[in-house]
Amino acid sequence: MSVRLPGASKPATAMAALSLPPLPLRAPPAAAPAISPPHSASASLKRLCKEGDLRQALHQLTARAPPPREHYGWVLDLIAARRAAAEGRQVHAHALATGSLDEDDDGFLATKLVFMYGRCGRVDDARRLFDGMPARTVFSWNALVGSYLSSGSASEAVRVYRAMRASAAPGSAPDGCTLASVLKACGVEGDGRCGHEVHGLAVKSGLDKSTLVTNALIGMYAKCGMLDSALWVFEWLQEGRDVASWNSVITGCVQNGRTLEALELFRGMQNSGFGMNSYTAVGVLQVCADLALLNLGRELHSALLKCGSEFNIQFNALLVMYARCGRVDSALRVFRQIDEKDYISWNSMLSCYIQNGLYAEAIDFFGEMLKHGFQPDQACVVSLSSALGHLGWLNSGREVHAYAIKQRLHTDLQVANTLMDMYIKCGSIECSAKVFESMSIRDHISWTAILASFAQSYRHFEALEMFQEVQKQGIKVDSMMIGSILETCSGLKSLSLLKQVHSYAIRNGVLDLILKNRLIDIYGDCREVHHALNIFHTVEKKDIVTWTSMINCCANNGLLNEAVSLFAEMQKANIEPDSVALVSILVAIASLSSLTKGKQVHGFLIRRNFPIEGPVVSSLVDMYSGCGSMNYATRVFSGAKCKDVVLWTAMINATGMHGHGKQTIDLFERMIQTGLTPDHVCFLALLHACSHSKLVDEGKYYLDMMMSKYGLKPWQEHYACGVDILGRSGQTEEAYRFIESMPMEPKSAVWCALLGACRVHKNHDLAVVAANKLLELEPDNPGNYILVSNVFAEMGKWNSVKEIRIRMAERGLRKDPACSWIEIGNNVHTFTARDHSHRDSEAIHFKLAEITEKLNKEGYTEDTRFVLHDVSEEEKIDMLHKHSERLAIAFGLISTRPGTPLRIAKNLRVCGDCHEFTKLVSKMFEREIVVRDANRFHHFSGGSCSCGDFW
């Protein structure tokens, strides 16, 4: 008889067919009853199946017809284990031809076939066979449930279970195997509700006492995120626990992030006398990896070696554990010991290099993978792209991208996201954007990455457009996305946009601690200190970043005393300062010129054995020099073990600001001799020093060296220094020609330098040119208007002065008042011109009048040219007498012992008359007076100044 089977183009004999019939077909009855083969034949077939010799087993099965059903069962079990679908179809066809299925009254053979097809991934064939069965037992239902489960169709497995419950056929009530399979399906689907229902059925039917079922319950609850229920079932099981029970609960804890509990359970398992198997080892090794428990991981490694275990799954887990613990050498030894390396082994080792920052080594290892015939898969492309991104190897990254496209791997979401990240790290935002545009499916990571790339590459408007698209797409906005948009607000310095984003974050409940800290930073950048303070006060659990952000906010906005007070409050709150916080407070102290507080912080560093290196030691040098103490700055610099370019630059800048031009050049040359390469900032400090010390030729030489020898393209600030060097020496016309020769359009800093030089050297015509350029470039900078106004006042152009002040008023601009401050004891005292607010004001003004009278008797005469107001001569003299630095000097003289140095800071340039006044005071009272103004330091002693009257 001929039959048509699925896949056959024409009728064929059953034995020759290789495809499954759509329904169980009935073959003609055999001519004679089946005769059982001798016992030796059964033993031989059973032995062949046990040894896995499928070819000989098939040959022996088909040698006699019809064979007993148990022979079919043995061979089908072997086929299922091998997942050999083609051979399974042959056996099915043989059973049809011999009529064995006709005589399968209890469904034994059909069930075996359903099971076989399910294990071979032919779930549709299994279903068709199942549907054609005249009678179904619980074993048949279990086979079909298992088929769907093994093929990844967990939801279908649950549906089959529900159909089984609804059938109510005799002999088809769910047993322990059924419930275990269905519970596994519930775990895969994350359907805790269905799993709970199955649990109820298990209790009612008494199957909850089955270890198989309880183990499945533990696994189901754990996968559904109901770990407490899983632990309850485990505790209830008590005496019925086996190794699988312990493995299930340990794995469940690991899956739910409760690694410490997993570790405790593992110890309990050992104490209960249970030996671990492969699954236990893998689970506990994952705990070791998560918690970086290297010693425990080594213990497990030793135990596995003693057991002689050679399973790849354990070696791969060991490899991952060593990688996560930072032991690349141990991971590599484990990798070399694996005889049959699979994809997981190679990819795990590649990932190990990348996790530990060994990106170049990862590329070399990839070359080894290729030599061994390894074909890069999705995981490999992800790892390789990550390594190339960190290395910044754009061209190699493009090659990997091309390979991914060729192998159709680029459509994978994780691959595409990693390629985007790789291009961002390589600085190719355009390529990253193209990858994003080509993605048919984008997840939250994709949108977050593209937002961050635009924000960090200063493409702020594109970032805003992308953020609007995110909202249109209905994608949930999280704190990382808000963080990127805050970067855009910072870049644009847009207060209105910042407030909108702030409000959006509050409304959507994504304002976490990280965002609050960033908001404090950006409000500070926008000079909105009160908004930053409001956020600061709302943070209940302030971390070190919160305090540091607020300290920086105050310091950068001139609230220096407030910054110092915050640092003290932070210590009272038992927040241990880190290097960033210490650098921030040292910067504030340097601006405040508070030597006492600076020493206190330095002492704190020493007491806590804080490493005085890197940014900290550079900040100490800046602080001491900013407080006028070059001796301490030099001692800190000399004591530093490792001097980098930043530290040398800090010392060069310090000596230059104190007027030691020749010493500054000597420092620079010493730095060059150590083999360090100066950068833009270093040259800027050097040029400033040349400017302050009237070293014109040296300044020209080093500006040329910067470009010719080191290939550094000057910034606007370097050109401004060049103008300042020429202008201060009186070469204002040459300075103007220097500006005209610049390869770029000069900005305000350059014209400001020229205007200052023209003011000093009375080049009024050129001053007008510079003034007009300055106001044109920065029409909203009040400092520029004051400078221009002062220049016109010195020229006697009072109408022009009046016009400038009217323009300021129309723009709502205000002049920062002249302010000086002095540190006495542990307090900083601040004075403004004609100040009477100090508690010792009467004594201060009396002392100042006394000083002035004594100086007048010694021949001192007020130089009223420095009073830039159109008032009477008497009023000009009175104004000079009340300048803020004179009030600070007077207070210092009455508040300190004779001979004590006075250190004063001023926010503006010291005028010529006050400079002369301070020289005479230093001689008359035999005091060293250190004054830091907006330009530089002045060390007054014995009637002379370190600046040589050049500032």
UniProtKB/TrEMBL annotation:
Q: Which GO terms describe its molecular function?
A: mRNA binding
Q: Which Gene3D superfamilies match?
A: Tetratricopeptide repeat domain
Q: Which residues form the DYW domain?
A: 859-951
Is Nuclease found in the keyword set? no
Localization annotation:
Plastid, Chloroplast
Per the record, its GO cellular-component terms are: chloroplast
Q: Which Pfam families match?
A: DYW_deaminase, E_motif, PPR, PPR_2
> Which ranges does the record mark as transmembrane?
none
Q: What is this protein called?
A: DYW domain-containing protein
Origin species, per record, is Urochloa decumbens
